[in-house]
Design brief:
292 residues, alpha/beta, 9 helices
Length: 292
């Protein structure tokens, strides 16, 4: 392998440093809410009154939600809405100014190392290294996560088999297609078999075939009992694969529900948006005569 191999670190993320305690203000203390349970289980992800600002910009403004174990939850919002900042805080890569975030009942600020054993983080972009192959890349992260000997080899082989990368083991990672690169990034997040997967825009830039393959992998992970928290700025990418959806705008949660319920109004009526090319007068008259 090349001399350009990265140094071994706590490999939750790729090319994204852990927050520096010496350069950031400690988060403000928030009141501890009661634990969230369903059928006796602790919430996989619990976010309460979360705030994060960058100067005058309120990136996350009072966000609260819960993700139950085994759910696939979509996080939908335009670019800049606050999705990535929220996900980075959950993944122990940034500090909140205020609020409480727990993964599996463990506070992400107080016990980040414990949280990292439970999560697999897949950023929207991941770094590549010259002259490093697919198998070398996964092996590096397996070593960084503490795997040794036959167990390390088994974990790498299992992940490559699941993501259908076995035949590409000797290919340089900077020569992979976008879809193959996303499968590799997902594989890296799965090395330590985490309970919770946090996937930031994994389908961005993929062709239709690669998107179908990614959806298939996510559904398999859900069937295996993994909790998946996945973001996108395109609703259609998430509607078919998610149990429920969270909509965020300007740092605030504006809607939360199942994909089917969000297609309908509170009365169950279907909401249809119509854009009229010319004068809408006649259409308005018809609507007024038969509003239902």
């Amino acid at each position: 392998m090349s001399d350009e191999e990265p140094q071994e670190t706590d490999a939750v993320s790729e090319a994204v440093p852990t927050p520096d305690l010496a350069t950031q203000e400690p988060p403000e203390t928030a009141a501890e809410p009661p634990p969230i349970h369903r059928n006796g289980s602790i919430a996989a992800i619990e976010v309460r009154n979360l705030y994060r600002s960058f100067g005058n910009l309120k990136a996350v403004d009072g966000v609260s939600f819960t993700v139950e174990p085994g759910q696939v939850v979509g996080f939908v919002g335009a670019n800049g809405a606050g999705k990535t900042t929220t996900m980075r805080i959950i993944s122990t890569l940034d500090y909140p100014n205020r609020g409480i975030v727990k993964v599996g009942g463990i506070d992400v600020v107080q016990y980040p190392s414990k949280v990292r054993t439970k999560i697999g983080w897949m950023p929207d972009n991941f770094g590549t290294y010259s002259n490093m192959t697919v198998v070398e890349y996964l092996d590096f992260f397996a070593r960084a996560l503490g795997y040794t000997g036959p167990e390390r080899q088994e974990r790498v082989e299992d992940v490559m088999d699941f993501t259908d990368l076995t035949s590409l083991g000797d290919r340089l990672i900077n020569k992979l297609s976008k879809g193959m690169g996303q499968r590799l990034c997902l594989g890296r997040a799965l090395i330590h078999d985490p309970e919770v997967l946090i996937l930031d825009e994994p389908a961005a830039g993929l062709d239709p075939k690669a998107r179908v393959e990614l959806k298939h992998l996510i559904r398999i992970l859900a069937e295996e009992g993994k909790t998946v928290f996945i973001s996108s700025h395109i609703l259609s990418e998430l509607g078919e694969m998610c149990d429920s959806l969270l909509f965020i705008n300007n740092g605030r949660i504006i809607r939360h529900g199942t994909a089917e319920s969000l297609k309908h109004g509170e009365t169950g009526s279907t909401i249809v948006k119509v854009q009229v090319a010319k004068d809408a007068g006649k259409l308005e008259e018809c609507a007024e005569m038969a509003p239902h």
